[in-house]
Structures are given as C-alpha cells and as structure tokens.
Specification:
about 450 residues; alpha+beta; Aminopeptidase; six-stranded mixed beta sheet; four-stranded antiparallel beta sheet; globular; binds ligand BES; binds manganese (II) ion
C-alpha cells in the first residue's frame, strides 16, 4: 500500500490537471445542443477507464445517451465484486451570468476547482479512475473485482437505465454497488450517507380562456389561470410545512427514536447555515429538526412557474395559460407512482371548474436506505477513517439517486454511498466547485476502500 500512497501523493497536481480536461466537456444531458459533447464525454470516460487499467471497456448505446462500462475481474473468485456507478452528465449552467468564471473553464481558486460537474459527479467519478490507476500502476492488480458503469442520464432521471440493467443483468452481477455521488457533513466531519430520498416530479398546465384577453375588458368575469394556479399551489402545503395531499404520508416510515438520537449528535450550526444562505428564518415541517426535514422527511417544492407577460414593463393581459413544475422528495416506503396518482387526484379535486387543468409526470424514483451494519459498510468506515484521519458519522442525504433502488431490486445488491461533496459546493447552482482537499482525501479513502472490501469473505 505504501507504493500506492506515494504514487497518489506524487501525482496530486497531475490528477487535478487531468480532471480539468473532464470538466471542460459541456456534457449537459438535457440539452439537445450538447448531444455531440455527450459522445465526446463518453469517449473521455472510455479513455480514462482504459488507461486506469480496466478491461473490456466499451461504450454501450441506450435509446438516450450512452453508458460506459469497464471491468477488472482477476482478484479471484473468493473476492467480492463491486460495481462502481457514477454519472458523466451534468445539470444545465443557467443562470450563466452568475458564474464567477465560465462553467466549463475548470478554474482553481482557494484550493477549490470550479466547474459544472466538479463535484456532481465528474470529480467523484475521477476519484475512482485515479484510485484504480494507483493500484494497477503500482501493484499490477486490484485487491477486489471491479465493474464500472458510468452513465450519461442521471440528471434527467436515468430514464433508460433500468432497462439497461435488466438487459445486462449478468454483466453487472455484483456483491456491492459503490457510488461516490453524495456529500459529507463538512470538511472536518467525514460522514457516510446511508439513505437517499425518492422523487416524484410533476408538471401542471392550467388553461383559462382559449386565447389571451384584454384584462380590462374581461378581468373580473373570466378566471385567470395564473391566479387559479397560485390557489392550487397554496393548497398543496400548509403554513406549517405539512403537505395536504390526501394519503401523502400513509407509507412514510417514521424516524425511530434511536435514529432521532443519532440525528441529534450530528454537528449543525443553524446560525452559520442561515448566514450562508442569506435567510433570516428557516421554514419546514413543524416537529422536526432541520437535518431531519432535509433528509428523512418528504417535502414538496415548486421548481418553476410561468405564464402571462414576462417582458419589461407592463402589459394588461389576462393570459390563456399558466404552468408550474412541482416536485416532491419522498422517503421510504413512499412509491413514486402512488404519489403521482395521489397528487393528480388531489389537484383535480381542488381545481376550480373555471379552468382546465392538465397534469403530467416528468420523472420519478424511489428512495433508499442502506443497512449500516453490513460488512461492506464496515469496510467503508475503515476506509474513510484512513483517508480522513477521523471516524465518519452516518447521515441521510436529501437528494435522489433513483438507480440505487433499481440496483437493489434488479441486481439484489446493496449500495454503499461513499461521497466526498460538501453542502456548500453549489451543486446544480452557479459556481459549483469541489474542494481539492476532499478530492485528494477521496482518492486515498477509495484506494483504501478497495483493500478493505477485499477482506470480506464471500
Ligand atoms: N448527486 C445528486 C444526488 C444527491 C445530491 C444525493 C446531494 C445526496 C446529496 C444527483 O446527481 C442528483 O442531482 N439527483 C437528482 C435526481 C433527479 C434528477 C432524478 C436530484 O436529486 O435532484
Ligand atoms: Mn450526482
Ligand atoms: Mn445532480
């Protein structure tokens, strides 16, 4: 291991330079203009897998963006096989003028690398490339059997991945899935995420009159779809943060007393949190702490709303249409399909007859909780401790990685979430960045993790 650790220390700067090339590719999966960049990015991943020493590396087509696969399976049959999953696609960059440097310039400031995808998830995928490379270059082998699956559609809901996994079930067969696409508490407090929320994402279209109208001529006589939509949205959640959709909480697994005790032990500085976000008061479901609210409780948020006149100045119009994008973060055991149905029934029930309401589901995914007492988790704890010099705490993440529950149900494999992001690194937001200390400690931790997980008897 010493040789490997020396190699990692000696290549610190090299690794960052190489990461920059990955971050410069604008692989925005939702943008039709970036289809070519998605291909370029898949080819970059293919090249990195090959040069790290993986075999059978291939770009595999899906009905959407391609998946990149590679493996190294010579550790022996008595050793476990891990499937490393990550994504090379990124979120859109808008509003682009709020970025200090262009989003695909990969600029370093104050020991942090800034780019869309820096921490979500390219930087974290790169940690695995470099950990594999460090083992292969110095030992000529890996301690554990590794399969690697890097997809290009995570940020658009992994719409083609379930089918891909079903079709390639044998190829992807493994004992554990390992994902570095989550965060830690703060830079001094390493933590392992053992739960993720699910998601049900809806779009509501409200139609009033069949065309835009003069708001003086018709105002007061004809319902306004924007006003109607605002009423509908107001009835989704009360002023105490409770969601009002009938049956919404029926399948929610409540936090156990023991879990709530664990939550209390996590460091959390409310004043700092508010200051960082520029808000005077927090808001959330009454009866739960902030950390519980943003990871173990379901919620509902309006993600976008539009309609009517958006230009400069005033236009006296009674618009024909109004739209909203509304998403709900779910917790185990809430089923996205059931929640979509409850949402639709409830919105139809509360909608006034004076407008027509169309509801569609955009995408969804189940939440997941991974057992914290498995041998794989113990290996993760030891590895984090070696990489960070501190024992990690356990947390649950508020975000979603829908494929985790698919790995569980299709491959019957538990997932270990070993992520190195920080809550203030602006994922999905302008000035996304990755702290290079955690990039480096991540490579150390993951290199140790391969050794630790190899100690598990199959
Ligand atoms: N890496 C995130 C998920 C995440 C973020 C987990 C923070 C835990 C903490 C992932 O790339 C992501 O953004 N997922 C989407 C899922 C959606 C597009 C289906 C999300 O959570 O919004
Ligand atoms: Mn991600
Ligand atoms: Mn993301």
């Amino acid at each position: 291991m010493e040789k490997i650790l020396n190699y990692i220390a000696g290549n610190k700067e090299n690794f960052v330079e190489q990461l920059k090339e990955f971050l410069k590719i604008p692989s925005i999966s939702t943008n039709p203009e970036n289809v070519k960049d998605m291909k370029t990015c898949a080819e970059f991943v293919e090249k990195e897998m090959k040069s790290a020493g993986l075999e059978n590396v291939k770009i595999m087509e899906t009905p959407g963006h391609p998946v990149v696969y590679g493996e190294w399976l010579h550790a022996g049959e008595d050793k476990p096989t891990i499937l490393i999953y990550g994504h090379y696609d990124v979120q859109p960059v808008d509003p682009v003028d709020l970025w200090t440097d262009p989003p695909f310039s990969a600029t370093i400031r104050d020991g942090k690398i800034y780019a869309r995808g820096a921490v979500d998830d390219k930087g974290q995928v790169f940690i695995h490339f470099k950990s594999i490379e460090s083992h292969m270059k110095n030992n000529g082998s890996l301690p554990v059997n590794i399969k690697m699956l890097i997809e290009g559609e995570e940020e658009i809901g992994s719409v083609n991945l379930d089918n891909f996994i079903i079709k390639n079930k044998e190829l992807l067969k493994c004992d554990y899935v390992v994902i570095s696409d989550t965060g830690m508490i703060d830079s001094e407090t390493p933590s392992i995420c053992y739960g993720l929320r699910g998601l049900a994402y809806m779009q509501v279209e409200v139609t009033g009159p069949n065309r835009d109208l003069h708001s003086g001529e018709f105002g007061g006589a004809v319902d306004n779809p924007i006003n109607a939509l605002a009423h509908i949205i107001c009835k989704l959640k009360d002023d105490k943060g409770k969601i009002l959709i009938d049956g919404f909480y029926d399948d929610v697994i409540e936090l156990s007393d023991a879990e709530r005790e664990e939550y209390k032990k996590l460091p959390f500085d409310e004043a700092k949190y508010k200051k960082d976000l520029g808000i005077d008061e927090l808001f959330g479901e009454v009866g739960y702490s902030t950390l519980e609210r943003d990871s173990a409780r379901p919620t509902l948020d309006c993600n976008g709303i539009w309609g009517g006149f958006q230009g400069e100045g005033a236009k006296t119009v009674l618009p024909s249409k109004a739209y909203a994008k509304i998403s709900m973060r779910l917790v185990p055991d809430q089923e996205p399909e059931k929640i979509e149905k409850l949402f639709t029934e409830y919105v139809n029930k509360i909608s006034p007859k004076s407008v027509k309401v169309k509801i569609k589901s955009l995408h969804g995914g189940k939440g997941a909780i991974t057992p914290i007492d498995s041998p794989g988790m113990e290996a993760a704890v030891t590895a984090m401790e070696k990489g960070f010099g501190k024992k990690p705490l356990f947390t649950r993440g508020g975000g979603s990685i829908p494929v985790v529950s698919s790995f569980q149900s299709i491959l019957n494999a538990p997932t270990i979430l070993l992520g190195f992001g920080l809550p203030d690194e602006n994922i999905h937001s302008p000035d996304e960045h990755f702290n290079l200390i955690n990039f480096h400690r991540g490579i150390l931790s993951i290199s140790h993790f391969y050794n630790e997980i190899a100690k598990i008897n199959k």
